[in-house]
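In the laboratory, one determines a bound structure by crystallizing the protein with its ligand and collecting diffraction data. In a computational setting the workflow is compressed into a single prediction: the sequence and the ligand go in, and a structural description comes out. We illustrate the idea with uridine-5'-diphosphate.
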Amino acid sequence: MRVLILGVNGFIGNALTRRILTGTDWEVFGLDVGSDRIEEFLSEKRFRFLEGDISINREWIEYHVKKCDVVLPLVAIATPATYVKNPLSVFELDFEENLRIVKMAAKYGKRVVFPSTSEVYGMCPDKEFDEDRSSLVYGPIAKPRWIYSASKQLLDRVIAAMGTAQGLQYTLFRPFNWYGPHLDNVDAPKEGSSRVLTQFLHNILYGRPIKLVDGGAQRRCFTYIEDGIDGLMTILENPKGKADSQIFNLGNPSADLSIAQLAHALIDAVATYPKFAAAAKKTRIVKVSAKDYYGEGYQDITTRVPSVAKAKRLLGWTPKTDFETGLRKTLDFYLKGRKPPEV
Ligand code: UDP
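The predicted complex, in structure-token form:
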């Protein structure tokens, strides 16, 4: 199989590429603006890479959509700070640019595996979000935070409609707070632009307080990247066509933590690494308002638990990694071989 991954250097793209190159005989064609996470694959025969931008390198993309069997358009802005500060850029990249790619796949009869998001459920009151039954609930237009999930939701709907009207072969997957090695750069202090786990780790390593937005009672289900990749690989293998025209939540309902619990769990776990124990013990936890942290246009989601019944039924997939194990593997990646901070 020939797999086209746009955004191949991203958190999901690089982990998927590693799995494909080590576990299958498939070929990967990848595009990204950066290559720091995929350097080890650049000399690999079954991997071709172009450093480029989906809004610029259109001919390269069209050529490779034609050449490949399946397209994964993974390029997107997925950081809440940007939803609030520059909502139009989120719409342009996450919706407009990706729509072009999806249309191209439809034109050439190629399969699309598209990353929707757990964020599409928004403030849905259901205890567990169901792909085919839960309502998608958003705040007002004056809260631009929702432009990300609204863009993704509309693209989900467009893809599903193209499936019905034009026979587009597709699968949508919804990651629930995936984490693991190569998540974000813990040395890049872009507050609000990194996902919460790497933001907190950055704060510990740089002697800054951990900030709990609005108290940190909001909850997320943290899903270890390799579990997510297991699900994605089964979707790509598509046994008996069971992934076709389906949406799958890929999340770990048993790793449901409040953000405050995450902060404590992380401090305790970092403290078990002797070189970092002093920094962990010194870390303060403070509370900040969402308005101060993200700006006026932010609104949070208080709970987000996936139903994974459909992924189990159709794909035989369940998350296997408990939070403690996943956190340990993530911290080994970030801390082993790293110099201790000056505290
Ligand atoms: N958060 C926080 N402090 C931070 C960064 C994030 O309290 O320094 C909160 C954020 O408000 C959200 C949760 O952590 O409720 C998860 O944030 P993230 O950006 O990782 O992902 P989300 O699930 O919101 O897309």
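The mean pLDDT is 96. Keep in mind that any predicted model is a hypothesis to be tested, not a measurement.
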